[in-house]
Amino acid sequence: MSAAPPSRPLTPVTRVLRLCLHALLLGLLALASARAVTGSDPHAGWVIGLSALLAAVYAAGVRAPAVHRSARAAGLWLAGVGAVWAALLAVSPDGIWVAFPLYFLELHLLRLRWGLAAVAVTACAAIGGFLAHSGSVTPGAFLGPLLGGAVAVATVLGYQALYRESERRRELIEELIATRAELAAAERGAGILAERERLAREIHDTLAQGLSSIQLLLRAAERALPEDAPAVEHIARAREAAQENLAEARRFVRALTPPDLEHGSLAAALERLCSGAPGPRVRFSVSGAPRPLPTPYEVALLRIAQSALANVVRHAGAGRAEITLTFMDSSVTLDVVDDGRGFDPAGVAAGGDGGFGLPAMRARAESLGGLFTVESDPGQGTAVAVTLPLPVEA
Question: pTM above the 0.70 mark?
């Protein structure tokens, strides 16, 4: 016999149904005993004794925790209940009524196939008991037990279906609540990171570049003046102040760097991204001589790599992918190539991003004066490339 169904916390409806089942069985036993006494049944003593014994066996099983945890214990208890009920059925035709609550009991405690078999055996026993006591074959002898068994099976199966549907809806609601919380946290984190990136870009593109220009102009003015000119000393101090403030601005930019870039270079961040990517095997490589890049460049390349790799995982169905960072004399290039199912870039461009986020990656690259390209064909994989020109002051 297979393991018993896993026990679940009782709901108010389940408790009421169990109480009704207990009351129905005990009420039917009391009715059978009362009819035996009032009807001057010669076996009244046996009917009362067997009814009391059946009630005692039933109550013992209801209160025994092992019956609800173990399929073997449940089977033994049902066998004991069935044996006492068969003895009661042998001495009184009123024992047939007890078959109806037994149907529910068997379907509740046993797996479906064993429960159906037990219901069939119980119905056959009820039919046989009725025929033995009545001495004649009538349609009611068959219809009553069979119809009762069918009603019990339909009721139990219907309740189980409703319960499973309720459990699925409860799980969906819990998943929705958890997803909303995760989405809210992700949105807050994305907003914080976006603001950090914006501030870093603004400081680099305005304040840092302005201070750098001021320093160059001061150096040019210092070279143009005679060495003994009174203004040379002031220009030198101004240039040193500009240099100090430029270094401070760059420290601000580094402090606003995304967490992925805080503890290493862009290459190290991309390598961690590839090693932690789920799904396909991702390989990372560096070509050319690595050099320090401005923070906006590193942030843009890292975000484009993250977005492209996320598309590979979610949409491409690829078995492997490769990210390559290439340093050249005047530019830096990032390539993300996969062997997935591919797509039609023209169709995606005509119908929106299609969930790939390509416009966001393109906008990020073009904001730094770069070039963003996508090459793909259905069934031929996808290659995403972004090239950023290196600034004079990197």
Answer: no
